[in-house]
Amino acid sequence: MDKYSDQLKLKVVKAYLAGKAGAIALGKRYDVEPSLLRRWAAAYQIHGLSGLKRKYRRYGADFKLTALQHMWDNHLSYRETAAYFDIRKTSALGEWERLYHIGGIEALSPGKRGKSKKMRGTSSIAIKSGNDETRT
Q1: How far is CA 28 from the centre of its chain?
Q2: Where is the Insertion element IS150 protein InsJ-like helix-turn-helix domain (predicted)?
């Protein structure tokens, strides 16, 4: 279940966009982080009510690269880019950017979760150091 109802999100966003109070004041009043309220407002302005709904989605490498390229070309923040592409987890963009710089588009491809085959095949044999003598 979502921590915040759609009705509460809409109420707070409308108050914020109407200029009735700032993000900090509204956040304190409704127990919402100001950054989250700003993200809701940005998503609402671009996508309407659907921007406030809970959403689960996996993104492919092409979509991730498109979002990153748009962000870089337009000098946007993670929050602005997330709102534009309706990505609910803003921090995902930072992770995608990090992965892209490490391994290119291949690193953006959705992978299997869990240990890699290399990790599963390693044993837990202790490596002996060159100094096995016991001292008396």
Answers
A1: 24
A2: 63-115
List b or e across 86-122, with b for residues whose CB sees 16 or more CB atoms inside 10 angstroms.
ebeebeebeebbebbeeeeeeebeeeeeeeeeeeeee
Domain ranges of the chain: 6-51, 61-108
Per residue in 56-96, pLDDT (tens digit) is 678 889 999 999 999 999 999 998 998 888 887 888 999 99
- For residue 88, the 8-state DSSP code is S
Q: What is the token pair recorded at 9?
A: 């999100």
